[in-house]
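Technical appendix A lists one of the benchmark inputs used to test multi-chain prediction within the project. The record comprises two sequence entries:
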Amino acid sequence: MKKFINHLDNVLVESLSGFAAAHADSVTLHLDPHFITRKNKAVNKVAIISGGGSGHEPLHSGYIGVGMLDAACPGHVFTSPTPDQMLLAAEAAHADKGILFIVKNYAGDVMNFEMAAEMLPFESATVLTSDDCAVINSTYTNGRRGVAGTVIVEKCVGSLAETGANLQACKALGDKVNSRTASIGVALTSCIVPAAGRPTFNIDDNELEMGVGIHGEPGRRRETMREADAIVRDCVDAILTDFKTRNFEPNKHEALLLINGFGATPLMELYLIYNTAAKLCKQQGIQISRSLVGNYTTALDMAGASVTLCLLDDEIKQHWDSPVHTAGLRWGS
Amino acid sequence: MKKFINHLDNVLVESLSGFAAAHADSVTLHLDPHFITRKNKAVNKVAIISGGGSGHEPLHSGYIGVGMLDAACPGHVFTSPTPDQMLLAAEAAHADKGILFIVKNYAGDVMNFEMAAEMLPFESATVLTSDDCAVINSTYTNGRRGVAGTVIVEKCVGSLAETGANLQACKALGDKVNSRTASIGVALTSCIVPAAGRPTFNIDDNELEMGVGIHGEPGRRRETMREADAIVRDCVDAILTDFKTRNFEPNKHEALLLINGFGATPLMELYLIYNTAAKLCKQQGIQISRSLVGNYTTALDMAGASVTLCLLDDEIKQHWDSPVHTAGLRWGS
């Protein structure tokens, strides 16, 4: 294992400290237990809080800021944060209109956020993201996994919360975005968790893992490495099949196409994937009117990428386009 | 070699096409010869044009847009673009106040941009970037190499050009930023150039290359892998020594600290590197008042990172902070 680390015990705190120092104008880091909040606390809005295991950066800490999250709770690498982190984050971020937790559907995260919600002295609700259409039930999951589509949920809900919308409206929008989003990922290599010091799974030089999870969990099947067009075609087919199962007709919607790198795949390849995926969508009559290409939900140093399609409506477009000011996603005034 | 590609001959065009499609609101792709321009051509300003071998994305195409570049000329992977690309880009982007080429100091790039400048029917000037303090003369270079500091040059010069400043002023600012910037990189793994299909260099599991170039060129020395703090200390020491050689006293300036990933290094590690580098700078009395952490000048799928320090003054700060609207760097209104 070759990584830029010092002692294994300090990886998370040193990385969080660097994040907080690099973005000292916009975030505040709290340690023991760890959570990160906006530097300038919002007033009179639903506080949007997310969290999960570290190693997926910029998710979630990188999405703290105006137009997106109020706070994030980073667990150790690929490990759920604990209820005390969530409780303290909620107390720090609460702005008189309740707390909305956005939680990727992994058993540990779900359990700990539920415990925190029960102990909270404030009104709260939870949006569970489950955009990964690769598999139902997985290593750490009952039901579908929450992956890169979570970024779209956090962006849209964060935008709505800034307007002063109430907790029920924010939860409803989050659930709607999640229900209209599907993702699937492909791994070319395993990631290496620092504490393990070796690859999470073995994969041959001529193989890929179709449907891999963002912790290196198994996907649908191990396949022989092929050209990008064939791989991307399988991803887009899986997503479109999933939408049909859920009674959506993708060609009746505009869509957001997100090509997400898992950490070690060059941007040059991600744009090549985008090129193929966008063409395939167009062939199916789907109008791609919003795009995002880059490393937005990573799996440490895994080589691979995921394709996400979100079926838009006017409300989702409005909240996707609205200004956002975070380390990982930034546009508008 | 496992990469998301189809036929080797088409990697560049397919990737550029994906880039142009994903950012269709802001850029226009021209093929044969290849160059990319802003979709909405600027008026009455110096046109800022960069270019170089592909594989360093988002450099340079990702920096086209208001506040930064007017056009970029992508060569094949790690290969200089040709004068016809530069000539056509200049003709397309020319906005009545001359052309400023920003060129990383590699022999092929320098020669081809010089040829283009000689053939141009417009007034032109060139800023050569040479921020890499690792080595003088290298595989592809006479003199110092231009690396991640080029992003800072492009940002500041692009900002000044938007104000209507003349060609001489833009060149002077570019030269000043370059003269106040120093970088050094470390590789943990080699990159793989698609056309070669194998690693550019061999490196053992317990080794790092200190001072590596962004094409995998040799650096100062091969070293035994160490903890991050020790590696980063050597990088910061090299940069501070370089500034002293150039008669700067870094502790008398505010500075911008850029931690740049080479393509396969997780953001979590880049922030850990930032944490150490910022502390070391502070110990030396240097006030880090601006920061940038992420993949901004990559080397395909190389695992590694570079440290860049730019000594600020009021003019550089103003132009760094000004709005920028590109795929790779975006802030302000």
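Residues 181-312 of chain A form a domain with the Hypothetical Protein Tm841; Chain: A;domain 3 fold (CATH 3.30.1180.20). Residues 228-245 of chain A form the longest helix (18 residues). Comparable benchmark entries are summarised in Table A2.
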